[in-house]
Amino acid sequence: MKKTRISIIGCGNIGLSILQGIIKSVIIEESDLIVTRRNTDELDHLKNTGIRITSDNAEAVRAGNLIIIAVKPYNFKNVLSGIRNHLQPRKHILISLTAGINIAQIRKFVPVSIPVFRVMPNISASVGGSISCICYDHASKRECEKVSSLFTLLGTSMFIGEELMDSATILGACGIAYTF
Ligand SMILES: NC(=O)c1ccc[n+]([C@@H]2O[C@H](COP(=O)([O-])OP(=O)(O)OC[C@H]3O[C@@H](n4cnc5c(N)ncnc54)[C@H](OP(=O)(O)O)[C@@H]3O)[C@@H](O)[C@H]2O)c1
Q1: pTM, rounded to two decimals
Q2: Which of 43, 59, 92, 174 is the most exposed place for a label (fewest CB within 10 A)?
Q3: Can you give the residue ranges of every domain in the chain?
């Protein structure tokens, strides 16, 4: 079985929470984690952990197979344009955490030969307490299991229809959700 290598593109608040949760789970080795942001100085605290840090998104895509996009909506188009030619069928699964960008919009950059997932987690992922809602397009049962098992490491995960994703975003980010 192919080794899982995870690339987090846009390692800010949610990207870092996911990373911390993955590290805590000890299922994935640090050497199989690649993170990016433009200002990599902000990730200096990850130096000497074995995690690969780069500002080169294409390099992160080439090195990984689960590609998690964790940038803000206004950076999404630019990031996808920069990595689209590096995505390979049967190698890559694309997972977008970006709120408000739907699968139809993602498909403008990513062909149907690449499975696409949208996931709405929250920062409790860092302590294994996220409730992550997932929807997908053109993915096999095995690919769905792969993505759901990753987010189950970070808390609870559940598949929902894409039409419920906006509601899940609001519910997951509200104060009551954090209290619970
Ligand atoms: N925060 C949450 O709890 C949460 C939960 C679920 C979903 N989300 C969604 O996740 C997305 C990110 O939210 P956030 O709160 O984590 O925002 P954030 O803290 O601003 O993180 C976004 C990161 O993207 C990086 N970035 C921007 N352009 C880039 C590029 N071209 N290449 C590589 N990295 C780039 C930024 O760093 P540089 O400026 O250094 O590049 C920044 O660290 C949003 O769409 C949000 O809706 C957030």
Answers
A1: 0.96
A2: 174
A3: 6-179
